[in-house]
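Database export, one record per block. Field names are fixed; values are copied verbatim from the stored entry.
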Amino acid sequence: MKVLFHPLAKVLYTSAFLLVGEFTQAADLASPEIIHQYIPKAVAFSLEKNQIPQDAISISVFEISQIRHEGIAKNISKTILNWRSTQAMNPASTMKLVTTLTGLDVLGPQYRWRTKLYTDGSIYQGVLKGNLYLQGSGDPKLIPEELARMMKDLQRLGIQKIDGNLVFDRSAYAPTVMEQVSIDGEALRAYNVTPDPLLYAFRTLSFQMGKSRTADFIDISYTPALSNFKISNEMQLIDRSCDTWKKDIRFEISPENGVTSFDQSIGVKFSGVFPSECKGVAYNVVALDANTFLTRGFIAAWELAGGTWAQTPTGNNGIVPITARPLIQFEGINLADDVQDINKYSNNVMARQLMLTLALEKMGKPATTENGELVIQSWLKKMGLQFPELIIENGSGLSRKEAISAQHMNELLITARRLSVAETFYSSLPLAGTDGTMRNRLMTQLQKFLHLKKKPEARIKTGSLSDVRAISGYVVSKSGKMYAVTSFINHPNAWKGLEAHDQLLVWLLEDGPEPKQAR
């Protein structure tokens, strides 16, 4: 086992002392720094049980309190625990905290992405005679509800029929950021969707499946609506629990990649078996290229709004001509709401698009990840934060390269508490036992606090890769103390580390007692 010692310490500590977090009489001789270098007993036990070495985990905990000086409230912090806290580690999706806090402070919570619509034609007697150009700025949540609003805006201009093609202007991003690159080879998985200035519905088909309430067959519906899209359901019900419902489902799309005339249909076929105990699950897949997905989605949205076409558009890439005239400047939901989705549900492509938006707004187009990193680094410097080990590849944590230390992530959390966006950022984090990626975490442990007038809580961003488990956020304890906590596990057995992290959070909910010092 690797044991860390402060260079000023003059006394030999046993490994058992560090393992259980109990001090011997010699602890009185230790420097203040060494006092914090331990692992809480329950956490250490869980690590040992799950065969995770202590040198594979880093932990940083600070207590955050507020004082008033000359009538001004100021936050101060006190170190509680710093096990290997300065070690650079892969943070997985907790890296989103760096991206979202920078975005909130630089752009402001009310920032809205704009999707602009132009035409090179004219409107006469309800007909738009000419091409319709869509110019994107990277709205990460251009979802069906938003597209339906856009259709209504077009109709308010007096347009009922479109006699022209759809042209997509994606010049806001450099082409390299839109290239398909995945760290696990799973290009069809929704978490691997690439950035797109005209990203529609995360380019993800979401199929809702469940046993019919009226008969022994499987209901399948899907979103978003796409034109000429058909589902063939050849699945069979099987008497089995819903735990592994996905493993025996086979998905096929024809023609492959959706390469076809937009007058022709795309068909998907589901076959295999489906557990009868499943009441409702979502099968998400990225099966169509960006242009096909957006074109068919736009056609369907326009027709659902009552609009018609002179002929079916094909949807091509292009640049808005200088001579084109603007029709609509469509604004999506605000950044504060987007950050809720990014942090609570760990949406990778939304985080990546926020980082690109920082580049777009502060350094101009085309946006690149390199420029996005420059903006973040500049903001950190402005905040007085020096993170020399920080590596940002895409700002989402879906990376084998990204790195930060637990201590510096906590310094970011402490900085957040003094910003005007503090509460917006705080409320965006998943609430243990309630929502987001922490919805099913600590549910039993939190029950014991139900009798308290002011309930303790854990607002924690989670992160996971095949060999990474991470937590970072705030814990408000049973006594009302606030702690900033970050812990990273980088190890092949990291997937077993959820229990250790939960034990750390419970320890803090109980006010994380420091090791007992001998008298």
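Remark 1: The longest helix spans residues 348-363.
Remark 2: The first strand starts at residue 57 and ends at 69.
End of record.
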